[in-house]
Design goal:
TIM Barrel; about 375 residues; alpha/beta; elongated; 2 domains; 8-stranded parallel β-barrel
Length: about 375
């Protein structure tokens, strides 16, 4: 296993940070980008790998790979429209650890030849697919790292939902990279929950005042969820404060029951909360509790398209429990920690449990279903501290 693939195979969501001075669709992004300085900064910010555009249409060159290699030890992906053996040999000589292969531009015969040569040169490959047929081709050709791009390279349009469905259907025994359309932590999490092992981010980083800090922010955990929302104005405050997930309780017995899942901006994920009986909604995720003694059970499942993607460790209905954090620490897989959280205790809870997400509701209210905006802001700020 090469360095690039190995770096993306570690537990958790990996980040591939891209150096891209311009884009054919968006124009100039960061014309003065220094690939060496950026590769260093991305490595310090936790990048699993760096992607370097070498095509002149992106204002890139092979010198950019050489500069990044000289300045950083992070695995490097050379990204261009490669179709020949010379392209791969040049990438190897420049210091790349991996190369991009676009299935759109390669028939099976040429792709097979380039994959074989890459193995001889000890280069990993990121085999990029744009539709279900290309994902199947990549798997059939033996690609070990498959990139699923949300961008149509003919029209440059973005379809994140289609991408997430392709990621979910991709073979689980391969390393899957979600490419393009990641601008927020919640969008990165959506790719993770769909099954992506890594995200590749370029435009969002290049447009940020501090690209390395933006990368750190996209990969930061825990995610922050504000739940029990019933009003548009409260959703707006939660989003503005920096919440990643917004929750709407649709269980009939809840005093903070919402009439519907409120429309939410694309940069956050919506969560519909049910007790036992699930209804169809437009929410991105479902938080499902069993029903016990007429109320919700203690813990819940977080579901994406009926697949369990995390466990919600909560308190018993209207009760406390001194073993709450111990139970959360002992839980396997992704943990969303809920129950009695607010600004005054969320930091200690995070340091104790290291959860994937934290969830607050009743302690952020003025009355059931009506949020105290200052408490919402304070909770999100404390969870992010």
């Amino acid at each position: 296993m090469g360095r690039f693939r190995a770096a993306l195979s570690d537990p958790g969501l990996a980040g591939i940070a891209e150096v891209k001075r311009r884009s054919p669709s968006a124009g100039d992004l960061r014309p003065d980008a220094d690939p060496g300085a950026l590769a260093q900064a991305f490595e310090r910010s936790g990048a699993a790998a760096c992607s370097i555009l070498v095509d002149e249409r992106f204002a890139g060159s092979w010198d950019d790979v050489r500069a990044a290699r000289a300045a950083s030890s992070v695995p490097l992906l050379a990204k261009g429209f490669f179709s020949s053996a010379d392209d791969l040999r040049t990438a190897k000589a420049a210091g790349a650890d991996a190369v991009l292969l676009l299935l759109r531009d390669l028939d099976d015969g040429r792709a097979t030849e380039l994959l074989a040569l890459a193995r001889q040169l000890e280069l990993d490959t990121l085999v990029e697919a744009h539709d279900a047929g290309e994902v199947e081709r990549a798997a059939r050709l033996g690609a070990e790292v498959i990139g699923v791009n949300a961008r149509d390279l003919s029209t440059f349009s973005i379809d994140r939902r289609a991408q997430l469905e392709l990621v979910a259907r991709a073979p689980s025994d391969r390393v899957i990279v979600a490419e393009s359309a990641v601008h927020s932590r919640a969008q990165a999490a959506a790719a993770e929950l769909a099954g992506a092992d890594a995200i590749l981010v370029g435009t969002a980083l290049m447009r940020a005042p501090d690209p390395a800090e933006k990368l750190r922010d996209l990969l930061a955990r825990p995610l922050v969820k504000v739940c029990g929302l019933t009003r548009d104005e409260d959703v707006a405050v939660a989003v503005d404060a920096g919440a990643d997930l917004v929750g709407f309780i649709l269980a009939r017995e809840s005093p903070r029951r919402a009439e519907r899942v409120v429309d939410t901006p694309d940069e956050v994920l919506s969560v519909a909360v049910f007790v036992e009986d699930v209804e169809e909604t437009a929410a991105d995720l479902v938080q499902l509790y069993a029903r016990e003694n007429g109320h919700r059970a203690r813990d819940a499942e977080l579901l994406r398209a009926d697949e369990r993607v995390a466990t919600v460790i909560d308190l018993p209905w209207q009760e406390s429990d001194a073993t709450h954090l111990d139970r959360a620490r002992a839980a396997e897989g992704r943990v969303m920690l809920a129950g009695g959280l607010a600004a005054d205790n969320v930091r200690d809870a995070i340091e104790s449990v290291r959860p994937w997400a934290v969830d607050a509701s009743s302690r952020l209210e003025r009355s059931p279903g009506v949020k105290d905006h200052d408490a919402v802001r304070a909770f999100v700020e404390a969870a992010r501290a």
